[in-house]
Each structure stands twice: as C-alpha cells, then as structure tokens.
Amino acid sequence: MKNNKNYYNRQSKKSINDMETHPIWRGIGFILLIITPIISYFLSVILLDANRSNGWVNIPKGMIAYGNSDPFIYIKIFLTIVFVVLIYGIYTFITFLLFSLFGPSRYGPYDVPNVSYKKKKK
C-alpha cells in the first residue's frame, strides 16, 4: 500500500473548528452567565419602582401574591426572564458582529471556488 505523506499532513493540520477556546474566554462566559440574571433582577426591581412612582402600567390583581412577604414576586420573576432574554440577545448580536468583522474567512484553503454559469439565450 502506498504511503501518501500529503494526506497525513493535511489531516494533522487543525481547522478553525478544532481549535480550543482560550480559558480566559471560558471564564468571561461563566461570569456573564452568573451576572446577567443578577443584573436582570435589579433591572426588574428598578422598573417596578419607577412604575409605582409614575403609574405607567396597572398591575393585574392575579399577578399579586397577597400572602407572600413580597407581593410582586411573580412580576419580578417575569421581568427578570424578559430582561435575561434581551441581554443574552444583545450578547449574541455583539458576538455575531465581532466575529463577522474579525473572524476567519468562511472559506478554507480546501474549498472549491464558486462556479459562475452563463445562461443560454433562447
């Protein structure tokens, strides 16, 4: 059997998908994973206080927990989830933008170039 060195050299090169993520970025992602719900909770508390003083939205009586020490707990949970989704959406958009600006090319060295076809006139 013939030993083809080019085949083995090509297989040993790492592609962009095989590269490991630097541990710093893993740590930053973990910190953002922990801090984002905390920030979202405080944003919901600030929004409820501003609503209480300005009267923007009437809170339905079904969402108020009267027997609880914090009667607005259901509203805080709902607003926290909404803010978490919004903040993670902003993170995703920023990541997409930075990766499209500074990331590697979509095509690697082994991709076939695009073929252009000419239409035949009928």
Based on CA atoms alone, the radius of gyration comes out at: 26 Å
Distance between the termini: 53 Å
Helix content: 55-70%
Alpha plus pi helix count: 3
The 3D shape can be described as elongated
Largest sheet: none
Whole-number mean pLDDT: 84
Give me the strand/helix succession.
HHH
Protein architecture, described:
The radius of gyration is 26 Å and the shape is elongated. The two termini are 53 Å apart. The longest helix has 32 residues, at 23-54. It has helices at residues 5-12, 23-54, 73-102. The protein is an all-alpha fold and 122 residues long. The protein has a domain at 60-102. The model has no long low-confidence stretch (mean pLDDT 84). The protein has 3 helices and no strands.
Summary tags:
single chain; 122 residues; mainly alpha; 3 helices; elongated
Write the layout of secondary structure elements.
Elements: H1 5-12, H2 23-54, H3 73-102
Helix pairs in contact: 2-3
Task: Provide a compact summary of the structure.
The protein is an all-alpha fold and 122 residues long.
